[in-house]
């Protein structure tokens, strides 16, 4: 049975690449149309991976595997048919001039997937001229799904979510990417290996912050889908070096820091990127 649609939201209609023509040829899709396309891409990925015998077969580069390739092909077929641009970890960017560009990581947390650790996801974010418009992140092992639409809040499995009210590092549960630069000040530290899901766990209050300590480790497809979920859930974010986080440049690399509250964000940046802490605190 379909999940009930939350108050104030209309259920996205199901769009299918099999219906031949894109919903709108010029890519100026309505928000529900976009979310329907993201959902269709997710379903195509699940179907593609369901028939894959060896997820860990080596791809064309050292950090690419069969599951990445199969998932990317499935998602791209749907997105391209919908008339949107596509920026993916697994292929050259296409259609960056289009009104809507979908930034996708077909399998975020591939190493977890190959080892059977149930913490890996597909992440999709539709970006328009105003920024992040719609996003969908789904844990491919458990089916837990997160979605957000700009200005309409964030959902986990159909229910509204909000970030925690944690305001100090000494009380915070923090996910970390990279090597801590010094003895950490937070209450608990976790490193789960899938940025999209870690950020979504900040959005729903399971974690209080996400800290990245590497300058150029994280690509837009790793974090954009979950970043919109975080923002719509009330969390705040920055880049460790004050670069814009919202970008469709496939060559861009960032150091995102996300926290439940502004004061916690300032402390997190002060730990990971001490030179930027005062600027964050003064905002």
Element layout with pairings:
Elements: H1 31-50, H2 66-81, E1 85-88, E2 101-108, H3 110-115, E3 121-128, E4 131-139, E5 145-149, E6 154-156, E7 159-160, E8 173-177, E9 188-190, H4 195-203, E10 209-212, H5 220-232, E11 236-239, E12 256-259, H6 262-272, H7 277-281
Helix pairs in contact: 1-2, 4-5
Q: Biggest sheet: strands, sense, closure?
A: 7 strands, mixed
What coarse outline follows from CA principal-axis ratios? Answer: globular
CATH topology of the largest domain: Fructose-1,6-Bisphosphatase, Chain A, domain 1
Placed side by side, the strands forming the largest sheet appear as 1-2-3-4-5-6-7
Q: List the secondary-structure elements in sequence, H or E.
A: HHEEHEEEEEEEHEHEEHH
Tally of helical runs: 7
What's the average pLDDT? 85
Task: Return the CATH class of the largest domain.
Answer: Alpha Beta
The portion of residues forming beta strands comes to: 15-25%
Helical content (DSSP H or I, runs of 4+)? 25-40%
Question: What Rg is obtained from the alpha carbons, in whole angstroms?
Answer: 18 Å
Number of strands: 12
CATH superfamily of the largest domain: Fructose-1,6-Bisphosphatase, subunit A, domain 1
Structural class: alpha+beta
Distance between the termini: 46 Å
Would you identify the regions where 5 or more consecutive residues have pLDDT less than 50?
A: 1-28
The domain tally reads 2
CATH architectural arrangement of the largest domain? 2-Layer Sandwich
What does this structure look like?
The chain folds into two domains: 17-160, Fructose-1,6-Bisphosphatase, Chain A, domain 1 (2-Layer Sandwich); 169-281, D-Maltodextrin-Binding Protein, domain 2 (3-Layer(aba) Sandwich). Helix 1 runs antiparallel to helix 2 (66-81) and helix 4 packs parallel to helix 5 (220-232). It is an alpha+beta fold. Strands 1-2-3-4-5-6-7 form a seven-stranded mixed β-sheet, sandwiched between helices. Helix content is 28%, strand content 21%. The N and C termini lie far apart (46 Å).
